[in-house]
Specification:
heterodimer, A: 5-stranded antiparallel β-sheet, 11 strands, globular, B: 112 residues, mainly beta, 7-stranded mixed β-sheet, 53% strand
């Protein structure tokens, strides 16, 4: 069954600290993996997109890694800011004739002063 | 900048009412999608469209229909709203074979 799991479900960290969010997937055939940030009451916004051949990609203070062998990805946030408080969603796309994607349930991150 | 707009941010409807949710994108994207988002379940695909007047069922199409009369506009229709359709509804669009989906701000629908 195609599935995307994320951990932890929620996380609270102090401003300025680093954190890592995890994503495990059982999706086949794999096409690409995406991380989105969703602020409360808003639609998701893309942070990174990685294909099979890419194992790391950065977007400012966000760095995503992908291990296609173990089917795991992580999102590392460096020097967290209050504005990083949001839900982070891992999305895996299947290699099909259309854009079939599986969304993870998200990790809710709260950055406190 | 790609802009995806949705007709309402918040909507309250009664059981049995017909509900229209509209989505408009301004970047000439071919592909448009409707999702619903519920706590703990992630986003689930209701319907998608790859061209004008074309539609395909997603994972949870029951109780919904869609309309795409113009390339920039994709409407989601609840023929007879029920309380289990209370949810956040998100519209998205993509260009051709691009992987990146652009999402609208969402419509929080409450059916009482």
């Amino acid at each position: 069954k195609n599935q995307v799991e994320q951990s932890p479900q929620s996380l609270i960290i102090l401003e300025g600290k680093n954190c890592t969010l995890q994503c495990n997937y059982t999706v086949s055939p794999f096409s690409n993996l995406r991380w989105y940030k969703q602020d409360t009451g808003r639609g998701p916004v893309s942070l990174t997109i990685m294909t099979f051949s890419e194992n790391t990609k950065s977007n400012g203070r966000y760095t995503a890694t992908l291990d296609a062998d173990t089917k795991q990805s992580s999102l590392h946030i460096t020097a967290s800011q209050l504005s990083d408080s949001a839900s982070y969603i891992c999305v895996v796309a299947l290699k099909t004739s259309y854009d079939k994607v599986i969304f993870g349930p998200g990790t809710s991150l709260s950055v406190i002063p | 900048d790609v802009k995806v707009t949705q007709s309402s941010r918040y909507l309250v409807k009664r059981t049995g009412e017909k509900v229209f949710l509209e989505c408009v994108q301004d970047m000439d994207h071919e592909n448009m999608f409707w999702y619903r988002q519920d706590p703990g379940l992630g986003l689930r695909l209701i319907y998608f469209s790859y061209d004008v007047k074309m539609k395909e069922k997603g994972d949870i199409p029951e109780g919904y229909s869609v309309s795409r009369e113009k390339k920039e506009r994709f409407s989601l229709i609840l023929e007879s709203a029920s309380t289990n359709q209370t949810s956040m509804y998100l519209c998205a669009s993509t260009l051709g074979n691009s992987y990146e989906q652009y999402f609208g701000p969402g419509t929080r629908l409450t059916v009482t």
